[in-house]
Design goal:
- By secondary structure, the chain is of the alpha+beta class.
- Helix content is 46%, strand content 9%.
- The chain is built from 16 helices and six strands.
- It has helices at residues 5-8, 65-80, 85-97, 100-112, 117-130, 144-158, 160-179, 205-213, 219-230, 234-238, 271-278, 306-320, 333-344, 350-357, 366-371, 377-396; strands spanning 19-23, 30-35, 40-48, 51-59, 251-254, 265-268.
- The strands form two sheets. It has a four-stranded antiparallel beta sheet, covered by helices on one side. It has a two-stranded antiparallel sheet with strand order 5-6.
- Helix 5 (117-130) packs across helix 7 (160-179).
- The chain is elongated.
- The termini are far apart.
- The relative contact order is 0.07.
- The model is unreliable at 361-373 and 403-412 (pLDDT under 50).
Amino acid sequence: MKLTAANIRTLKLPPGVTDRVFFDEDLPGFGLRVRASGVHTGMIQYAIAGRTRRVVLGLQSALDPGKARATAQKLLAQVRLGKDPTADKAHARVAAAETFGALLPRFLRHQETRLRPRSYVETVRHLQVNAKPLHGLPIEAVTRRAIAEQLAKIEEDTGAITRNRVRSSLSAYFTWLAREGYIDANPVAFTNKTEEKARDRVLSDEELRIIWQALGDDQFGAIIKILVLTGMRRDEAGGLLFDEISPTLPLITLPPERTKNGREHLVPLSKPVLEIVRALPRRATDDGTPLEHVFGNSAGRGFQNYSRGKAELDARITKARHGRALEHWTLHDFRRTLSTALHDRFSVLPHVVETLLGHAGGHKAGVAGVYNKALYLEERRRALELWGAHIMELVTGKPAKGNVVDLHGRRG
Protein backbone atom coordinates (compact mmCIF):
# COMPACT_ATOMS: atom_id res chain seq x y z
CA MET A 1 0.00 0.00 0.00
CA LYS A 2 0.95 3.65 -0.26
CA LEU A 3 2.06 5.05 3.10
CA THR A 4 -0.40 7.89 3.50
CA ALA A 5 -1.61 9.28 6.82
CA ALA A 6 -4.92 7.45 6.44
CA ASN A 7 -3.35 4.11 5.49
CA ILE A 8 -0.75 4.27 8.27
CA ARG A 9 -3.53 4.42 10.85
CA THR A 10 -4.89 1.08 9.57
CA LEU A 11 -1.62 -0.83 9.76
CA LYS A 12 -1.71 -3.81 12.14
CA LEU A 13 0.76 -6.56 12.89
CA PRO A 14 -0.35 -10.13 12.13
CA PRO A 15 -0.91 -12.39 15.16
CA GLY A 16 2.38 -13.47 16.72
CA VAL A 17 4.45 -10.87 14.83
CA THR A 18 6.14 -8.21 16.97
CA ASP A 19 8.11 -6.30 14.33
CA ARG A 20 7.53 -5.71 10.60
CA VAL A 21 8.45 -3.19 7.93
CA PHE A 22 5.62 -2.09 5.63
CA PHE A 23 7.01 -0.76 2.36
CA ASP A 24 5.43 1.87 0.15
CA GLU A 25 4.31 0.39 -3.19
CA ASP A 26 4.84 3.67 -5.08
CA LEU A 27 8.32 4.43 -3.67
CA PRO A 28 10.39 1.23 -3.37
CA GLY A 29 12.71 1.38 -0.35
CA PHE A 30 10.53 3.76 1.67
CA GLY A 31 8.93 2.02 4.63
CA LEU A 32 7.43 2.20 8.08
CA ARG A 33 8.74 -0.13 10.78
CA VAL A 34 5.89 -1.12 13.08
CA ARG A 35 6.56 -2.67 16.49
CA ALA A 36 4.16 -4.33 18.89
CA SER A 37 5.30 -1.85 21.54
CA GLY A 38 3.57 0.88 19.57
CA VAL A 39 6.82 2.57 18.48
CA HIS A 40 6.70 3.15 14.70
CA THR A 41 9.61 4.64 12.75
CA GLY A 42 9.93 5.88 9.20
CA MET A 43 12.95 4.55 7.26
CA ILE A 44 14.49 3.80 3.92
CA GLN A 45 16.16 0.53 2.94
CA TYR A 46 18.57 0.13 0.04
CA ALA A 47 21.41 -2.05 -1.21
CA ILE A 48 24.85 -0.72 -2.06
CA ALA A 49 28.08 -2.61 -2.70
CA GLY A 50 26.25 -5.88 -2.05
CA ARG A 51 25.10 -4.83 1.41
CA THR A 52 21.65 -3.86 2.67
CA ARG A 53 21.50 -0.65 4.65
CA ARG A 54 18.83 1.27 6.47
CA VAL A 55 18.49 4.94 7.40
CA VAL A 56 15.97 5.90 10.10
CA LEU A 57 13.96 9.02 9.25
CA GLY A 58 12.39 9.42 12.70
CA LEU A 59 9.45 8.44 14.85
CA GLN A 60 6.19 8.21 12.93
CA SER A 61 4.45 10.25 15.62
CA ALA A 62 6.80 13.17 14.90
CA LEU A 63 6.87 12.80 11.10
CA ASP A 64 4.60 14.42 8.55
CA PRO A 65 3.95 11.62 6.00
CA GLY A 66 4.37 14.02 3.07
CA LYS A 67 7.70 15.40 4.32
CA ALA A 68 8.90 11.89 5.22
CA ARG A 69 8.15 10.75 1.66
CA ALA A 70 10.00 13.77 0.22
CA THR A 71 13.05 13.03 2.41
CA ALA A 72 12.96 9.38 1.38
CA GLN A 73 12.78 10.34 -2.32
CA LYS A 74 15.81 12.60 -1.92
CA LEU A 75 17.90 9.97 -0.14
CA LEU A 76 16.96 7.17 -2.52
CA ALA A 77 17.84 9.42 -5.46
CA GLN A 78 21.32 9.81 -3.92
CA VAL A 79 21.60 6.03 -3.74
CA ARG A 80 20.84 5.76 -7.47
CA LEU A 81 23.70 8.21 -8.07
CA GLY A 82 26.06 5.93 -6.14
CA LYS A 83 26.08 7.79 -2.81
CA ASP A 84 25.64 6.11 0.55
CA PRO A 85 23.41 8.12 2.97
CA THR A 86 24.45 5.87 5.86
CA ALA A 87 28.11 6.73 5.33
CA ASP A 88 27.23 10.41 4.97
CA LYS A 89 25.30 10.28 8.24
CA ALA A 90 28.21 8.60 10.00
CA HIS A 91 30.58 11.24 8.63
CA ALA A 92 28.26 14.00 9.82
CA ARG A 93 28.20 12.42 13.29
CA VAL A 94 32.01 12.29 13.41
CA ALA A 95 32.31 15.83 12.06
CA ALA A 96 29.91 17.11 14.72
CA ALA A 97 32.13 15.61 17.42
CA GLU A 98 35.30 17.11 15.89
CA THR A 99 34.80 20.61 17.23
CA PHE A 100 37.25 23.48 17.55
CA GLY A 101 37.44 22.88 21.31
CA ALA A 102 37.64 19.07 21.13
CA LEU A 103 40.66 19.06 18.81
CA LEU A 104 42.46 21.95 20.55
CA PRO A 105 44.19 19.91 23.33
CA ARG A 106 46.07 17.82 20.73
CA PHE A 107 47.35 20.95 19.02
CA LEU A 108 48.41 22.53 22.30
CA ARG A 109 50.34 19.40 23.30
CA HIS A 110 52.08 19.61 19.93
CA GLN A 111 52.92 23.29 20.43
CA GLU A 112 54.16 22.81 23.99
CA THR A 113 57.14 20.84 22.66
CA ARG A 114 57.98 23.47 20.06
CA LEU A 115 57.42 26.87 21.67
CA ARG A 116 59.21 28.76 24.38
CA PRO A 117 57.28 28.73 27.67
CA ARG A 118 56.09 32.31 27.37
CA SER A 119 55.00 31.86 23.74
CA TYR A 120 53.13 28.70 24.69
CA VAL A 121 51.27 30.52 27.49
CA GLU A 122 50.26 33.23 25.01
CA THR A 123 49.06 30.63 22.48
CA VAL A 124 46.98 28.88 25.16
CA ARG A 125 45.35 32.17 26.15
CA HIS A 126 44.64 33.15 22.55
CA LEU A 127 42.94 29.87 21.67
CA GLN A 128 41.33 28.91 24.97
CA VAL A 129 40.16 32.37 26.06
CA ASN A 130 40.05 34.79 23.12
CA ALA A 131 38.70 32.17 20.69
CA LYS A 132 36.32 30.52 23.17
CA PRO A 133 33.14 31.44 21.20
CA LEU A 134 34.40 29.14 18.42
CA HIS A 135 34.94 26.11 20.68
CA GLY A 136 31.51 24.52 20.18
CA LEU A 137 31.57 24.68 16.38
CA PRO A 138 32.45 21.59 14.29
CA ILE A 139 35.85 22.33 12.81
CA GLU A 140 34.46 22.13 9.27
CA ALA A 141 31.88 24.78 10.19
CA VAL A 142 34.44 27.37 11.36
CA THR A 143 34.35 29.61 8.32
CA ARG A 144 36.43 32.59 7.36
CA ARG A 145 33.43 34.76 8.19
CA ALA A 146 33.11 33.29 11.71
CA ILE A 147 36.80 33.91 12.34
CA ALA A 148 36.66 37.45 10.97
CA GLU A 149 33.72 38.29 13.25
CA GLN A 150 35.55 36.98 16.32
CA LEU A 151 38.72 38.89 15.40
CA ALA A 152 36.69 42.07 15.00
CA LYS A 153 35.20 41.59 18.48
CA ILE A 154 38.65 41.00 19.96
CA GLU A 155 39.93 44.19 18.35
CA GLU A 156 36.99 46.14 19.73
CA ASP A 157 37.54 44.76 23.25
CA THR A 158 41.34 44.74 23.54
CA GLY A 159 42.86 46.41 20.47
CA ALA A 160 44.59 45.69 17.18
CA ILE A 161 47.70 44.12 18.66
CA THR A 162 45.76 41.43 20.52
CA ARG A 163 43.65 40.81 17.40
CA ASN A 164 46.76 40.20 15.31
CA ARG A 165 48.36 37.92 17.91
CA VAL A 166 45.18 35.84 18.18
CA ARG A 167 44.98 35.69 14.39
CA SER A 168 48.51 34.27 14.25
CA SER A 169 47.66 31.58 16.82
CA LEU A 170 44.46 30.70 14.95
CA SER A 171 46.36 30.44 11.68
CA ALA A 172 48.90 28.07 13.23
CA TYR A 173 46.06 25.94 14.62
CA PHE A 174 44.18 25.67 11.33
CA THR A 175 47.40 24.98 9.39
CA TRP A 176 48.03 22.06 11.75
CA LEU A 177 44.42 20.87 11.31
CA ALA A 178 44.84 20.92 7.52
CA ARG A 179 48.03 18.89 7.75
CA GLU A 180 46.27 16.42 10.03
CA GLY A 181 43.54 15.98 7.43
CA TYR A 182 40.64 17.57 9.31
CA ILE A 183 40.16 20.41 6.82
CA ASP A 184 41.29 21.15 3.26
CA ALA A 185 42.36 24.77 3.69
CA ASN A 186 43.21 27.34 6.35
CA PRO A 187 40.19 29.72 6.71
CA VAL A 188 42.33 32.29 8.54
CA ALA A 189 44.54 32.84 5.50
CA PHE A 190 42.44 35.57 3.88
CA THR A 191 41.22 37.38 6.99
CA ASN A 192 42.47 40.91 7.48
CA LYS A 193 45.49 41.74 9.59
CA THR A 194 44.98 45.11 11.26
CA GLU A 195 47.63 47.80 11.11
CA GLU A 196 49.17 48.18 14.55
CA LYS A 197 49.58 51.74 15.70
CA ALA A 198 51.66 52.56 18.73
CA ARG A 199 49.32 53.63 21.50
CA ASP A 200 50.12 56.77 23.44
CA ARG A 201 47.09 56.85 25.76
CA VAL A 202 48.08 58.15 29.18
CA LEU A 203 45.32 58.31 31.75
CA SER A 204 44.84 61.57 33.59
CA ASP A 205 44.60 61.79 37.37
CA GLU A 206 40.87 62.37 37.04
CA GLU A 207 40.47 59.29 34.86
CA LEU A 208 42.44 57.17 37.33
CA ARG A 209 40.21 58.40 40.14
CA ILE A 210 37.03 57.65 38.16
CA ILE A 211 38.19 54.15 37.26
CA TRP A 212 39.32 53.31 40.80
CA GLN A 213 36.12 54.53 42.43
CA ALA A 214 33.99 52.48 39.99
CA LEU A 215 35.79 49.21 40.81
CA GLY A 216 33.79 46.48 42.48
CA ASP A 217 34.77 44.55 45.59
CA ASP A 218 35.66 41.45 43.57
CA GLN A 219 38.61 39.72 41.93
CA PHE A 220 38.59 41.99 38.88
CA GLY A 221 38.55 45.07 41.10
CA ALA A 222 41.54 43.81 43.12
CA ILE A 223 43.48 43.01 39.95
CA ILE A 224 42.88 46.48 38.51
CA LYS A 225 44.10 48.10 41.72
CA ILE A 226 47.26 45.99 41.61
CA LEU A 227 47.83 46.97 37.97
CA VAL A 228 47.42 50.65 38.77
CA LEU A 229 49.79 50.56 41.75
CA THR A 230 52.54 48.27 40.40
CA GLY A 231 52.60 48.54 36.60
CA MET A 232 52.42 44.75 36.33
CA ARG A 233 51.10 43.20 33.14
CA ARG A 234 47.53 41.95 33.14
CA ASP A 235 48.37 38.25 33.11
CA GLU A 236 51.15 38.68 35.67
CA ALA A 237 48.61 40.00 38.19
CA GLY A 238 45.67 37.81 37.12
CA GLY A 239 47.82 34.67 37.20
CA LEU A 240 49.47 35.51 40.54
CA LEU A 241 50.38 32.54 42.75
CA PHE A 242 50.46 32.63 46.52
CA ASP A 243 53.98 31.20 46.41
CA GLU A 244 55.10 34.28 44.44
CA ILE A 245 54.16 36.58 47.33
CA SER A 246 56.84 36.82 50.01
CA PRO A 247 55.43 36.02 53.47
CA THR A 248 57.90 38.39 55.13
CA LEU A 249 58.93 41.03 52.58
CA PRO A 250 56.77 43.51 50.64
CA LEU A 251 57.72 41.75 47.42
CA ILE A 252 56.35 39.62 44.59
CA THR A 253 58.79 37.41 42.68
CA LEU A 254 57.66 36.40 39.19
CA PRO A 255 59.59 33.41 37.75
CA PRO A 256 60.92 33.55 34.15
CA GLU A 257 58.10 31.41 32.75
CA ARG A 258 55.59 34.03 33.93
CA THR A 259 57.21 37.10 32.39
CA LYS A 260 57.18 38.41 28.85
CA ASN A 261 60.96 38.66 28.57
CA GLY A 262 61.63 35.26 30.14
CA ARG A 263 63.53 36.73 33.11
CA GLU A 264 62.75 36.69 36.81
CA HIS A 265 61.02 39.92 37.78
CA LEU A 266 60.81 41.41 41.29
CA VAL A 267 57.86 43.66 42.12
CA PRO A 268 58.26 45.77 45.28
CA LEU A 269 54.94 46.39 47.00
CA SER A 270 54.09 49.84 48.26
CA LYS A 271 51.99 50.14 51.38
CA PRO A 272 48.64 50.48 49.52
CA VAL A 273 49.18 47.46 47.29
CA LEU A 274 50.63 45.42 50.14
CA GLU A 275 47.39 45.93 52.08
CA ILE A 276 45.40 44.72 49.07
CA VAL A 277 47.59 41.66 48.49
CA ARG A 278 47.76 40.62 52.14
CA ALA A 279 43.96 40.85 52.43
CA LEU A 280 43.36 38.43 49.56
CA PRO A 281 41.77 35.22 50.92
CA ARG A 282 43.39 31.83 50.44
CA ARG A 283 40.80 29.91 48.47
CA ALA A 284 40.33 26.15 48.39
CA THR A 285 38.63 23.45 46.33
CA ASP A 286 35.49 21.69 47.50
CA ASP A 287 37.61 19.05 49.23
CA GLY A 288 39.60 21.69 51.14
CA THR A 289 42.77 21.63 49.01
CA PRO A 290 44.32 25.15 48.96
CA LEU A 291 44.44 26.72 45.50
CA GLU A 292 47.76 27.91 44.13
CA HIS A 293 46.31 30.88 42.24
CA VAL A 294 45.28 34.02 44.06
CA PHE A 295 42.62 34.77 41.44
CA GLY A 296 40.51 32.68 39.07
CA ASN A 297 38.29 29.66 39.55
CA SER A 298 38.80 26.25 41.11
CA ALA A 299 40.06 24.74 37.83
CA GLY A 300 43.65 25.64 38.66
CA ARG A 301 43.86 28.63 36.32
CA GLY A 302 44.30 32.30 36.97
CA PHE A 303 41.74 35.00 36.26
CA GLN A 304 40.24 34.88 32.75
CA ASN A 305 37.12 37.07 32.62
CA TYR A 306 38.80 40.33 31.57
CA SER A 307 36.41 41.19 28.74
CA ARG A 308 33.33 40.84 30.93
CA GLY A 309 35.00 42.62 33.86
CA LYS A 310 36.10 45.53 31.67
CA ALA A 311 32.64 45.81 30.05
CA GLU A 312 30.92 45.87 33.44
CA LEU A 313 33.40 48.43 34.76
CA ASP A 314 32.87 50.69 31.73
CA ALA A 315 29.11 50.41 32.20
CA ARG A 316 29.38 51.50 35.85
CA ILE A 317 31.62 54.42 34.88
CA THR A 318 29.20 55.55 32.19
CA LYS A 319 26.26 55.31 34.57
CA ALA A 320 28.10 57.26 37.29
CA ARG A 321 28.89 59.99 34.74
CA HIS A 322 25.24 60.23 33.64
CA GLY A 323 25.76 58.50 30.29
CA ARG A 324 29.21 59.91 29.45
CA ALA A 325 31.75 57.15 28.80
CA LEU A 326 35.48 57.61 29.20
CA GLU A 327 37.54 57.87 26.04
CA HIS A 328 38.50 54.33 24.94
CA TRP A 329 41.12 52.91 27.29
CA THR A 330 42.74 49.52 27.92
CA LEU A 331 44.30 47.82 30.93
CA HIS A 332 47.74 48.25 29.35
CA ASP A 333 47.32 52.02 29.60
CA PHE A 334 48.08 51.73 33.32
CA ARG A 335 51.69 50.75 32.55
CA ARG A 336 52.15 53.68 30.19
CA THR A 337 50.54 56.05 32.69
CA LEU A 338 52.80 54.84 35.51
CA SER A 339 55.91 55.12 33.32
CA THR A 340 55.02 58.65 32.21
CA ALA A 341 54.30 59.82 35.75
CA LEU A 342 57.49 58.38 37.20
CA HIS A 343 59.58 60.01 34.47
CA ASP A 344 57.89 63.40 34.24
CA ARG A 345 56.32 64.02 37.66
CA PHE A 346 58.67 62.21 40.03
CA SER A 347 61.92 62.42 37.99
CA VAL A 348 62.72 58.72 38.37
CA LEU A 349 65.74 57.74 36.30
CA PRO A 350 64.85 55.93 33.05
CA HIS A 351 66.81 52.75 33.85
CA VAL A 352 64.93 52.41 37.15
CA VAL A 353 61.56 52.76 35.39
CA GLU A 354 62.58 50.25 32.71
CA THR A 355 63.58 47.72 35.34
CA LEU A 356 60.43 48.39 37.34
CA LEU A 357 58.28 47.62 34.28
CA GLY A 358 60.22 44.46 33.47
CA HIS A 359 61.40 45.63 30.06
CA ALA A 360 64.13 43.59 28.41
CA GLY A 361 65.26 46.44 26.16
CA GLY A 362 66.69 49.86 26.89
CA HIS A 363 69.68 49.94 29.24
CA LYS A 364 69.80 46.11 29.49
CA ALA A 365 69.50 45.29 25.80
CA GLY A 366 72.15 43.21 24.04
CA VAL A 367 75.64 43.00 25.53
CA ALA A 368 74.81 45.61 28.17
CA GLY A 369 72.25 43.27 29.66
CA VAL A 370 74.85 40.54 30.10
CA TYR A 371 76.98 42.72 32.36
CA ASN A 372 74.40 44.99 33.96
CA LYS A 373 72.65 42.82 36.56
CA ALA A 374 71.71 45.68 38.89
CA LEU A 375 68.24 45.25 40.36
CA TYR A 376 67.71 48.84 41.56
CA LEU A 377 65.32 47.29 44.06
CA GLU A 378 65.46 50.09 46.61
CA GLU A 379 65.04 52.78 43.94
CA ARG A 380 62.04 50.93 42.51
CA ARG A 381 60.51 50.56 45.97
CA ARG A 382 60.83 54.30 46.62
CA ALA A 383 59.32 55.13 43.22
CA LEU A 384 56.33 52.88 43.81
CA GLU A 385 55.82 54.26 47.32
CA LEU A 386 55.58 57.75 45.84
CA TRP A 387 53.19 56.54 43.16
CA GLY A 388 51.08 54.61 45.68
CA ALA A 389 50.79 57.68 47.91
CA HIS A 390 49.77 59.75 44.90
CA ILE A 391 47.03 57.29 43.90
CA MET A 392 45.68 57.12 47.46
CA GLU A 393 45.52 60.89 47.61
CA LEU A 394 43.60 60.91 44.33
CA VAL A 395 41.00 58.35 45.37
CA THR A 396 40.55 59.42 49.00
CA GLY A 397 41.00 63.16 48.62
CA LYS A 398 43.32 63.14 51.65
CA PRO A 399 47.04 64.07 51.55
CA ALA A 400 49.47 61.20 52.08
CA LYS A 401 50.88 61.00 55.61
CA GLY A 402 53.37 58.95 57.55
CA ASN A 403 56.00 56.75 56.07
CA VAL A 404 56.15 57.83 52.41
CA VAL A 405 59.80 57.97 51.30
CA ASP A 406 60.91 60.20 48.45
CA LEU A 407 63.53 59.23 45.87
CA HIS A 408 66.35 60.75 47.89
CA GLY A 409 65.53 58.88 51.09
CA ARG A 410 63.85 61.76 52.90
CA ARG A 411 60.69 60.94 54.80
CA GLY A 412 57.59 62.98 54.06
